[in-house]
């Protein structure tokens, strides 16, 4: 089996409502690029990456001369063909490598008639648990879906718990002043006794504010405090002054950083992202290092459609030391590009796909529909807040959003 072609299609899939975060917002939709790798036996492997538009599609097309004729089973060779650690300093291909790796693993599984987790050592669990992943949200165009107050946040969590069965709740913060987000977080704890909690201000807090926040929630049932401040030394200072485990998805995203954290610990839990780390296989290797040094492991979400979600499920299936519920933006979407629509949650978990390859196939009609929607709406500036024109975040941040301001409704453009 050899690769004969590679294609990319950028899509926009609507969200229930715009999601706010420390750096800006998802403006009511996700922009993702679907990658297809075709083999000479007619099989097509699927990949996915963040962002999109002409630049992403051109970047994928630019890999064609590297990939045509390559055996997709040689996934270790892909690492150096596409993202040699010195050469890639000049072309930053980690996300591209991940999307191609997904597709090559999908091809191998289809060709052999086995799910991807069988290629990765075999599953140790049939289902992967997920956290609710709560966001402060602007209202949707019809005025619904706003999450700004503690009451609205609790109601969002209550609705998700009723529909999806979540018993772990993660709040994406770094939007409002720390004392206000502390009020919101404690409201969650009060509303859901017995459930687990985690807070993620995306590195927006100063070290001192991070320490104060950590100490103010030490009495709660916390899984961990994720990226309270930015930088390994800052996280180490927070960690030294709290009993809560510290987690990251920002400063341990490659093996050099992982080695530095083992040598001089700054975080207790590493959130592994199949895109940020360059594929499923590097995440499994990193999980093995974490197992050796008794670091916690969780699966991170960088904003997925069903293809990348499948990679997260296969990763979660084979990692024995996955000791925390995974993250996913997935339940905020109103649709998907995979056949059968969005994958189903049951009791707060999603079944690991059992079909050959990644276990998902493209719904060509939906792909075309969402590609057309992308052409109509275009991209949006992820690192800007539509409700605060001219604002941009500093690290640490000190210019917080006003909890009393409802913000814009029409974010179509």
Structure explained in plain terms:
- By secondary structure, this protein is of the alpha/beta class.
- It folds into two domains: 3-116 and 365-377, Enolase-like, N-terminal domain (Enolase-like, domain 1, 2-Layer Sandwich); 118-358, Alpha-Beta Barrel (TIM Barrel).
- The chain contains 13 helices and 14 strands.
- Strands 7-8-9-10-11-12-13 form a seven-stranded parallel beta sheet. A three-stranded antiparallel beta sheet has the order 1-4-5.
- The mean pLDDT is 95.
- Pfam families: MR_MLE_C, MR_MLE_N.
- InterPro entries: DgoD-like, Enolase-like_C_sf, Enolase-like_N, Enolase_C-like, Mandelate_racemase_C, Mandelate_racemase_N_dom.
- Its EC number is 4.2.1.40.
Strand order of the largest sheet: 7-8-9-10-11-12-13
Number of strands: 14
Q: What would the principal axes of the Cα set say about the shape?
A: globular
Mean of residue pLDDT?
A: 95
Count of distinct structural domains: 2
> What percent of the residues sit in helical stretches (DSSP H or I)?
25-40%
Count of helical stretches: 13
Structural class: alpha/beta
The radius of gyration over CA amounts to 21 Å
Tell me about the biggest sheet?
A: 7 strands, parallel
CATH homologous superfamily of the largest domain?
Enolase-like C-terminal domain
CATH class of the largest domain: Alpha Beta
Order of helices and strands: EEEEEHHHHHEEHEHEHEHEHEHEHEH
Q: Name the poorly predicted regions.
A: none
Please give a handful of descriptors for the protein shown.
413 residues; alpha/beta; Enolase-like, domain 1; TIM Barrel; seven-stranded parallel sheet; three-stranded antiparallel sheet; 14 strands; 17% strand
């Amino acid at each position: 089996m050899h690769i004969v072609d590679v294609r990319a299609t950028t899509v926009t899939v609507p969200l229930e409502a715009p999601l706010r975060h420390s750096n800006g917002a998802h403006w009511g939709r996700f922009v993702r690029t679907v990658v297809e790798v075709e083999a000479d036996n007619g099989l097509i492997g699927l990949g996915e990456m963040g962002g999109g538009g002409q630049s992403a599609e051109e970047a994928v097309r630019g890999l064609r001369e590297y990939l045509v004729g390559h055996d997709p089973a040689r996934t270790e060779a892909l690492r150096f063909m596409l993202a040699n650690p010195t050469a890639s300093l000049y072309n930053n291909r980690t996300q591209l490598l991940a999307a191609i790796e997904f597709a090559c693993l999908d091809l191998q599984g289809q060709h052999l008639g086995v799910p991807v987790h069988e290629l990765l050592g075999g599953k140790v669990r049939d289902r992967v648990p997920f956290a609710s992943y709560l966001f402060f949200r602007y209202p949707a165009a019809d005025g619904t879906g706003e999450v700004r107050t503690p009451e609205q946040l609790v109601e969002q969590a209550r609705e998700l718990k009723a529909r999806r069965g979540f018993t772990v709740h993660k709040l994406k913060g770094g939007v409002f002043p720390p004392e206000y987000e502390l009020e919101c977080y404690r409201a969650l704890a009060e509303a859901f006794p017995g459930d687990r909690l985690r807070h993620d201000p995306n590195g927006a807090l100063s070290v001192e504010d991070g320490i104060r926040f950590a100490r103010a929630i030490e009495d709660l049932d916390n899984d961990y405090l994720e990226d309270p401040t930015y930088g390994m030394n800052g996280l180490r200072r927070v960690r030294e002054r709290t009993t809560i485990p510290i987690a990251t998805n920002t400063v341990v995203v490659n093996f050099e950083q992982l080695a530095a954290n083992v040598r001089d610990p700054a975080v207790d839990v590493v959130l592994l992202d199949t895109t940020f780390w360059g594929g499923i296989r590097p995440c499994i290797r990193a999980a093995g290092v974490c197992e050796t040094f008794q670091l916690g492991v969780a699966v991170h979400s960088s904003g997925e459609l069903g293809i990348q979600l499948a990679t997260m499920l296969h990763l979660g299936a084979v990692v024995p030391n996955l000791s925390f519920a995974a993250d996913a933006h997935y339940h905020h979407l109103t649709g998907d590009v995979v056949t059968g629509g969005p994958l189903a949650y049951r009791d707060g978990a999603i079944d690991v796909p059992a079909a050959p390859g990644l276990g998902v196939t493209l719904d060509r009609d939906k792909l075309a529909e969402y590609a057309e929607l992308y052409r109509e709406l275009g991209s949006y500036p992820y690192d800007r807040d539509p409700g605060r024109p001219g604002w941009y975040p500093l690290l640490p941040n000190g210019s917080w959003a006003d909890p009393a301001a409802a913000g814009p409704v029409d974010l179509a453009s």
